[in-house]
Amino acid sequence: MEAGGERFLRQRQVLFLFVFLGGSLAGSQSRRYSVAEEKERGFLISNLAKDLGLSVRKLAARGAQVVSKGNRQHFQLNHQTGDLLLHEKLDREELCGSAEPCILHFQILLQNPLQFITNELQVIDVNDHSPAFSENEMQLKILENTPPGTIIPLGNAEDLDVGRNSLQNYTITPNSHFHVLTRSRRDGRKYPELVLDKALDREEQPELRLMLTALDGGTPRRSGTVQVHILVLDINDNTPEFTQSLYEVQVLENSPVNSLIVTVSASDLDTGNLGTISYAFFHVSEEIRKTFQLNPVTGDIRLIKYLNFEAIQTYEVDIEAKDGGGLSGKSTVIVQVVDVNDNPPELTLSSITSPIPENSPETVVAVFSVSDLDSGDNGKMVCSIENDLPFILKPSVENFYTLVSEGELDREIRAEYNISITVTDMGTPRLKTQHNITVLVSDVNDNAPAFTQTSYTLSVRENNSPALHIGTVRATDRDAGANAQVTYSLLPPLDPHVPLASLVSINPDNGHLFALRSLDYEALRAFEFRVGAADRGSPALSSQALVRVLVADDNDNAPFVLYPLQNASAPCTELVPRAAEAGYLVTKVVAVDGDSGQNAWLSYQLLKATEPGLFGVWAHNGEVRTARLLSERDVAKHRLLVLVKDNGEPPLSASVTLHVLLVDGFSQPYLPAPEAEAAAAAPAAPLTVYLVVALASVSSLFLFSVLVFVAVRLCRRGGAASVGRCSVPEGPFPGHLVDVSGTGTLSQSYQYEVCLTGGSALNEFKFLKPILP
């Protein structure tokens, strides 16, 4: 019981003077419940669901929670029925001591929205303690000459119950000498005093034994007894007297052990042994005996145990001074314990929410309460957090705080916050307590993937192998988890004529681009398409970038000769007059290359000639010119092999064969090239024979018509008086003797009529005149 009383005093004396600036969350109207002490665990106090006007499901959905002061939980809430039950058996004397009424404060914490409901539980006392004396027998020594009416103090009994269940009065065994009075102290405790009704006579009755009974007011009434042994002494007419009937001292609670508290002093006018005084505690509690030590000779009271203001603030110590004759005097020492700031604030965390989603405005992160066992300024507290954090503290009901996010959080800027909550009291020196909370910010898909470039330019050489990796696009997402997992895809092409699906593909996981087939620069030099990057959030976010693929040329096309044609049935023969000067343009080799750049730069080279040194080929334009003057010794038929080569790596080339016929003027009949003679001698295929025959027939008819027409016109123009008579030459004569162009190259641009002298055996030219301008 004494240990329970100590806990009671400790809890009873805790003073909460924390001043709140304002509550941001209003609590509902408080209720007071009552329950008798010593009820068993699980005893039904009330149905909270009915009291709060909520259904049991609603009460559970709002996460109802019972929060008691301190670390001890007295209550429990049944979420299935909404009943408020006792968590443990309550002992009113342990909880509140002698305080009446005994009130336990607790709060109902509701979430969504956050709400505090302050409630009280009154613990009703039951008469479960009997009055008890600290000793089994009291011994009194009374002088035989003590006058009637003298009051003799007796030791009091203690009853831990309160109200009517506490100690009410004292009775003593009926006798003719004494009766007992019941007195009350300032703190309400009752103590007995023995009153002498009739003078004592030691010779008649040297001692008396009486039974002192202490009664409480409970139903049924409980009592405690003690034996009072009275010894009648011979005359000792002076009793010890204290210099002060009441001593009042103040002692700091942090005073060291063995500190002198006060010195009491008493005197006795008697002499000898009857005047020798000794001091002793008079019916004090065990707590006082453990805390203070009294020197029986000097009267010094010293501290033998550390004081604790939060447990006991005042000690009332009765001191007895007794002389050698057995007479005694009484004095009281009141010790006031002065509070010092020796208790740091305490923080009790009720709930915490982590992680919290980003972009959520004003989210309740934590709910906690603060307390300080000290009193006065030592018990006033200030709660704070760091200023550079996006969180604020809001005071709530009583000693509760809520930690709320200030505005929306961005996980991409900061994903974790370490919050230090500092609680500082106002005492001297100031004491503080820090509590660290780690708050994680969960990701929300609020960032679309971003490409490292808005457009990409890739280059791939033509004739590539299929499935060739041609480049990579990359996009990053600032989100986390699935919200940051990027998937790549090809978007529909801007140009519907581009067969994108057959040209490229993309790896959806890493953005690698592959050419699906071999590309041809000559067919497709460049193409564009868009790629998309989408995350896996909900909803998914995406972005796109432009990719331009440039096909690099490869030297895969050999030069192609346009002129002279190489697939003709008869080779083309160029006629050169023997009177041509050096540099005479014989013909021009015309060639093209399907490649581009230096792969299409063509150069010409004379590889082989019938007579080296007679003809030359210009390297850059393919013109075939005479290198020197022609002579009679030069053979008439020449075969030239011209090489056309590009500038690629490796270079590709084509060759063309030219047939050149030297003539001594334009009257010399055309001589076919040796190749033509060989071709004519060789048997032709049936189809070729038919074509040659048809072509020869048509050509012969056409030439014959032309010659007739020319001859008729010449005959008409010349008349009969003409000296030289114009006639159609006899015998075969080619219809395409000479072609002359402005540059000297022989082509079929003009037709000339030829007049020969009538008797000329050499068929020399007489005149040469164009038929058509």
From TrEMBL:
The keyword Repeat applies. GO terms for cellular component: plasma membrane. It is a single-pass membrane protein. Its main location: membrane. Keywords: Calcium, Cell adhesion, Glycoprotein, Membrane, Repeat, Signal, Transmembrane, Transmembrane helix. One of its GO terms (biological process) is homophilic cell adhesion via plasma membrane adhesion molecules. Pfam families: Cadherin, Cadherin_2, Cadherin_C_2. The chain crosses the membrane at residues 689-712. It is found in: Membrane. The keyword Nucleus does not apply. One of its GO terms (molecular function) is calcium ion binding. This is Protocadherin beta 3. Residues 75-133, 134-242, 243-347, 348-451, 452-561, 576-676 form the Cadherin domain. It comes from Balaenoptera musculus.
